[in-house]
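Might you be able to consider the sequence and fold that I enclose below?
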Amino acid sequence: MRSAQVTIRAVAVAPGDAFDRVKDFASYPELSPVVRSVTVTRATPGPSGGAGEEHSDWEVYFRNGILRWSETDTIDRAGLTIAFTQTDGDFAEFTGTWRVRADGEDSLIDFFTEFDFGIPSLAGILDPVAERVFRETIGLVVTSLFAKAEVVGDEALVRAVELARERAAELRTGDDAPIAVTAGAV
């Protein structure tokens, strides 16, 4: 099983506000050309601001196709965490967590996932690409949610997110070139 982890600092953003922005999965396609669609289909609020549950369907461009999955998202507003588990889709296994925590005046947003495509013969090829794509896409999406945000602790990822942001801006301004699988794309 492969994993991917990213930490992002949202400058001068309270943890509750950061959490509310992060959990708006339906807005992610607007923030990255790699995320084709996210549809939240069911939501069950938790009692008194406690844990609630959502079901979301995802489509993400990956290599020469589209990676699809459905997941259950357990949302704990009080604890500022979201745990997700694939219920159906292209992974053999796919789980993870989002966690938001205070760091002085800022918020730190931690994303962690473990995944397995279930194809041992291709794991050496697919898994490293998927790990890179998760990290870069999450970095791009989450930094785009805030006026000032930065990837923490990984200079190579900082550069990859900057390149992905430039490419996304080019696509929004009318460059009709197709989305290519590069270090910054799925």
Residues 176-186 have pLDDT under 50 and may be disordered. The beta strands are 2-10, 35-44, 51-62, 65-76, 81-89, 93-103, 106-116, 149-151. The CA atoms of residues 57 and 70 lie 4 Å apart.
